[in-house]
Amino acid sequence: MASKLAMLYFESLNQAAKKFNSTKGKEFDNFVISKDNFQMRYQSKKVEEYKTFYQRLYK
After folding, report:
1. Alpha-carbon distance values, 38 to 13, 14, 24, 33, 45 (Å)
2. Would you say 10 and 32 are in contact if contact means Cβ atoms under 8 Å apart?
3. Single pTM value for the model
4. What distances in angstroms separate CA 4 from CA 18, 25, 26, 39, 43, one per listed residue?
5. Euclidean distance between CA atoms 46 and 42, whole angstroms
6. 3-class DSSP state for residue 31?
7. Alpha helices per DSSP H over 18-59
8. pLDDT tens per residue across span 13-44
């Protein structure tokens, strides 16, 4: 249930972000991440590796 709620929040946040122009010319990576996964990702600094993992599971 929590993961579904997180994905709904993520999708609504992305929709809202499209309304703002303050990010023109800048690229941001948005994804839902658990506390445990965040701690591992933060320590490894391997964002691309997590993006691949995330896309495989959630896209």
Report:
1. 19, 19, 27, 6, 10
2. yes
3. 0.49
4. 22, 31, 28, 21, 26
5. 8
6. coil
7. 35-44, 47-58
8. 777 776 665 656 676 777 778 888 888 888 88
Q: Which helix (DSSP H) or strand (DSSP E) does residue 7 occupy?
A: helix 2-17
Tell me, what amino acid is at 54? Y
- Residue 23: the pLDDT is 59
Q: Give whole-number Cα distances, 26 to 4, 32, 36, in Å.
A: 28, 20, 28
CA distance 23 to 9: 20
State both tokens at 32.
């839902």
pLDDT confidence of 47, banded at 50, 70, 90? confident
Residue with tokens 């972000």: 17
